Amino acid sequence: MSTTSVRIADLRKSYERAELSEEASHADPLRQFDQWLTQAISAEIPEPNAMTLATVGNDLRPSSRVILIKGYDERGIVWYTNYESRKGQELAGNPCAALQFHWVELERVVRIEGRVEKTSAAESDAYFATRPLDSRIGAWASPQSQVIPSRTVLVTNAARYSAQFMLNPPRPPHWGGYRLVPDQWQFWQGRKSRLHDRLRYTLKDGGWLRERLAP
Questions:
Q1: Which residue in 22, 32, 17 sits closest to 185, CA to CA?
Q2: Is the pTM here over 0.85, yes or no?
Q3: What is the pLDDT of residues 88-99, one digit of tens each?
Q4: Phi, psi of 2 (to 5 degrees)
């Protein structure tokens, strides 16, 4: 039983900021995404580049985590991580995944589904070189998703790799980029009375089929 003084079931909000019509939306979902992400950045909302990544392991258990988008174009959505992490292992066994952006202040959600592939080594190298030095050392220091006895392991590893690489740590072989190649997009705009706008784009015969879904 919850001890909070606020009843969670009573928390409600009326969504009335905007609308999403077929006439005003782009026929190409990438253009629609670019427009909404640009507006989220311009609105200076907290971390507009944050997205939830959902994967499914060989044991069929789904898992999700928040990551940061690092690029997007007609090829797909890009992020970078440790290939040996839980998400990396799950993507190795099942390369299908889903992404979600939730821009609360704009009352908008974008959901993206598709197949995931690794970016090229050249792309990963180029991005890694732009990261702050501490982040590059951190990529070496953290055995992501593995059990460690204490934070001392991370601090010790960071000190060791800092001494080894100084100001020029190379990209670790276990670290790099992923690209989700979309075959489905959904754009959700909150509306009054829970009659939200929800447009789905599905890749079909080399083009995008746009349909309205009931909220």
A1: 32
A2: yes
A3: 999 999 999 999
A4: -70, 140
Q: Can you identify the CATH homologous superfamily of domain 16-131+173-212? A: Electron Transport, Fmn-binding Protein; Chain A (2.30.110.10)
**Nearest-angstrom CA–CA distance, 150 and 86:** 19
Q: What is the pLDDT of residues 92-131, one digit of tens each?
A: 999 999 999 999 999 999 999 999 999 999 999 999 999 9
Q: Hunting for tokens 């790799």 — which residue is that?
A: 161
Find the catalytic residue in 17, 160, 194, 212.
194
Strand pairing of 175-189 and 96-103? unpaired
Contact yes or no for 116/181 (Cβ under 8 A): yes
Structure tokens at 130: 């732009």
Is residue 11 scored above 90 in pLDDT? Answer: no
Name the pairing type of β-strands 108-118 and 71-73. Answer: unpaired
> Can you tell me the distance from the alpha carbon of 3 to that of 7, in angstroms, rounded to the nearest whole number?
9
The reply to whether 160 belongs to the active site is no
Q: Give me the DSSP letters along 9-35.
A: GG------S----TTTS-SSHHHHHHH
Yes or no: say if 68 and 52 are a contact pair by the CB < 8 Å rule: no
Which pair of structure tokens corresponds to residue 92? 């190795």
